[in-house]
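Re-run with default settings, no changes from the original entry. Doing this only to confirm the output is reproducible before filing.
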Amino acid sequence: MEKLKIYIDKYKIFHIAIVLLIVNLAYIMLIKNPQEQQLLNLYQNIKDKRLQLIQAENYIKELNERLIRMKESNDSLKKFYTSVLKNRTEGIVSLRKELAELLRQVNIFKIDINYNHNSIEKYNLHEVSITLPIENSYANIRKFINSVENSKNFIVINGVSLTESKQQLKLEIKMSAFFKEYGAI
């Protein structure tokens, strides 16, 4: 009987161990593994969000750098409009007087200067295209061109075409002068 009792006790212990094993397996499968997976998913989400945050911070930094460059460009443009460009009416009068004086300095008195006016509304500018036929010595023409490049007005030399002449250089200089329209910056 005693053996039977020991056998029954062993059998009970074995069943209890099996039940505990099943309970543990159920706990691991149903509770612990999903929790671990959720934890791993949370860690991965945190890692992804950190990466997104770093990318967003870099993007913000890049935007701030662009903003600084745009402000600097805007300040430069304002300075250009206020310090370099003259108002259209005053500038055109000044341009005509200055060109007459520069031509007089190189002994060119009577030429037919062609002026064309064009409004550049997008930038609040007024362009005066100038075609200037000149016939003179190389030294005088060079002096004239240097004077134009150092002009008080904002003048751009667009092109120079050379035609033949027996004694002197004969050029046609195409230039543009720019002035601000009223209300510009």
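The CA atoms of residues 157 and 175 lie 4 Å apart. DSSP finds three helices and four strands in the chain.
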